Amino acid sequence: MDDKELQSWVEEISLRWFGMRFRHQATFNSRLRSTGGRYFMKSHNIEINPKQLEHYGREETEKIIKHELCHYHLHLLGRGYQHKDADFKALLNKVGGSRFCQSLPGAQGRRTLPYRYELVCQSCGLKYPRKRKVDARRYRCGKCAGKLKLFSLPS
């Protein structure tokens, strides 16, 4: 499938499920790694990960398109278009879009850093593991409001 076929597919889904026309561009972006698609607020264009279509087929890709169209239509209507908004959740549920896309085979998850530092409360001894170095003077203990001291953990 090419961009032209994707464009007509997105327009057809928009009319059938949302009752509104899709008036912008829908394209494939093979550089997408951790997401099935994305909606651009400034240009109102939509990009879809072609690997989702390749690995999971039309049905899963249609759910991703519906998800992006929820962002698109709600944003243009001036309603809650973010993942946390009730309008978005309700519309996504109504049209049967997916909340999350499936992970691609061979794709690695987000790289996680090991805990390298620890903030320790000088009053109650509570420990706060940290992955990055922070300025301990800017923080207080959440339990007793005591002063914190930063320690490096052994590698």
Automatic annotation (TrEMBL):
Name of this protein: Protein SprT-like
GO cellular component terms attached to this protein's record: cytoplasm
Originating organism: Paenibacillus yonginensis
Residues binding Zn(2+): 67, 71
Family to which this protein belongs: Belongs to the SprT family.
GO molecular function, one term: zinc ion binding
Keywords of the record: Cytoplasm, Metal-binding, Zinc
Subcellular localization(s) per the UniProt record: Cytoplasm
Cofactor: Zn(2+)
Residue intervals of the SprT-like domain: 4-151
